[in-house]
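Convert to structure. Protein one:
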Amino acid sequence: MRRTVALRLGLSALAGVLLFLAVPTYGLWPLMWLAVVPQLYVARVAATPRRAFLYGWLTGFVANAGGFSWMDGLLERFGHMPGLEALPIMGLLVGYQGLAFAFFSWGVRRAWDRTRAPLVLLAPLVMVTVELVLPQIFPYYLGFSQAFVPAVIQIADLTGPLGVTALLLAANGAVAD
């Protein structure tokens, strides 16, 4: 039992690390084509949708902590805060932003429980809905990871950034299936 929970926590953290490494700051954009696969697996095998939510939140927390790591320095420099005060504020930010993956994981689990539809369909549908509906303090889309890949980002001319997110999540869902 403990090994299973530890494995799911590890896979959720791995997904978070892959996600923040895929953003333009780190430039490993090909990772986004597989970054969500571990979280899709965890969402499907979690004991309950609530557990899927918690594992997804961990993924989002790790991804946002890496992606918004610059925030701590910003608060220290321009907010004139000591690091000890800036850290909890940054924790609140990444905790809130992490809800996107919590709702994604929960939504995938609920939709899969009800329909048993392939993840190639469910993953993009749920993530696009989350990105469209959930208000973000610093709005971003997973599709932004492909900003410097002209062959992929051209899709955004027709679909906007949500279309790129849908394509990325369809690829992740296909691998997870």
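Protein two, convert as well:
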Amino acid sequence: VVRDPERRESTTHITLCVQAVNGAPVDGCTRILLFADRFSDVAYGDRISASGVVKTPEPFETDSGRTFDYPKYLLAHGITHTMSFPSVEVLGSGNGNPFVEVLIGAKHVFIRGIETALPEPESALLAGLLLGEKQSLGEKITDAFRNAGVVHIIVLSGYNVALVIQWISLIALYLLPRTWAYAATALFVVAFAIMTGASETTIRATLMALLMMLATVLRRPNVALRGLLIAAAAMALFNPYVVLYDLSFQLSVLATLGLILFSETIQKKLRFVTERFKLREI
């Protein structure tokens, strides 16, 4: 299991790097996405046996009547096949990257702490705001966020990375010299990206954040547009499929570009809105 399993309302999504099919070894790392039972007790780094029918994903029609190219979307994430509700047996654990296992373990401890401190759905909302963990919210509340146009605050994006950077840098600058504080914040935000699954939008935001912190240390803050272009170009070179087929990456880049190019101009036309509590900036 090469990613932290994603638990949803009725299923658990498990990403496997396949080592053998029907007893025959497989070269390289062919990835398969398993749609398993909601209560499957599987974790990152587990070695499992999954019995079921391997299928090639197919495009499907969305509620809006458009055709979603699901195979290409999965290909952007390195996944070529799927398997629905297989029989799963855990053969061993601890086969993943030890550093990643520690980070994922810390995330789960943090989520359990949130669930202990707050009732549902408030705990699920806080987990979504901080970690992008939205599965406990349920479809009804998630759809409400989507219809209101603010679903981005409960999925991993630049917003989550910005929250982490703001508070970690505030604490680090209080405790450490300026350069060391930004270095510690940079390490923390990289760990945060890995801990939360390193989605394309999170990687884009993390790369931009690292460039912005470097610019701040070097006292050259006006590099936002350049930082976006460098981050997008680096990701395109590493995986061109995300540019072509991952809509979340495309929207993330375009939204950030809009903020960089137009926010200052729009703020100048909103002088009737007070700057208190950063209302004009919002």
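The chain has ten helices and nine strands. Residues 247-268 form the longest helix (22 residues).
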